[in-house]
Amino acid sequence: MLHDVALDGHGVRLVPLDASDADGLAAFVDARVWAGMSSPLPVGADAWRAEVERARATPGRLAFAVLDAQTGEVRGSTSFYDWDPYVRRVEVGHTYYAPRWWGTSNNPACKLLLLTHAFETWGCARVAFRADTRNTRSVAAITRLGAVPEGVLRSHRLAPDGTRGDSAYFSILPEEWPAVRAGLLARLDATG
């Protein structure tokens, strides 16, 4: 889905993903980074250009490149998806970062920008997150956000190797957003 949403703050810039980001993503995404995704790992610049184009062409998905605000380095990607403006709901996902940014302020900064936009610009009534239950790193990151666990959808995902997996679902509602925002701001303050 082509879009013009750009979000900036806390050392990161989220800009519409485009073909110029493919080389930066190809440089760091490996099997460890791609773990838990439901599509095969793109390998090489051509495969990454195709992956970027697929993300941009998906209805209801606003795909972003995550950039270092000072240097412009591609840190990763994240997306809004299943955006339904009538129902006022969206999911956040398709998220992956270069390992050097794991455990830093990068993910809290991105989530703060995305959630602020979802709740305060779009007026969302629900923001959801899901992860393969085997992807313990992603499930832990979603839990740290303060998202409320809703349950597990059994045999909901198909992995690239053909195995089926379960999806853990989480959400944040408007009345929960102030506490989530405060928690993300505290994490950002703690990391400097």
From TrEMBL:
<feature type="domain" description="N-acetyltransferase">
    <location>
        <begin position="13"/>
        <end position="147"/>
    </location>
</feature>
<dbReference type="Pfam" id="PF13302">
    <property type="entry name" value="Acetyltransf_3"/>
</dbReference>
<dbReference type="GO" id="GO:0016747">
    <property type="term" value="F:acyltransferase activity, transferring groups other than amino-acyl groups"/>
</dbReference>
<dbReference type="InterPro" id="IPR016181">
    <property type="entry name" value="Acyl_CoA_acyltransferase"/>
</dbReference>
<dbReference type="InterPro" id="IPR000182">
    <property type="entry name" value="GNAT_dom"/>
</dbReference>
<keyword id="KW-0808">Transferase</keyword>
<protein>
    <submittedName>
        <fullName>Acetyltransferase, GNAT family</fullName>
    </submittedName>
</protein>
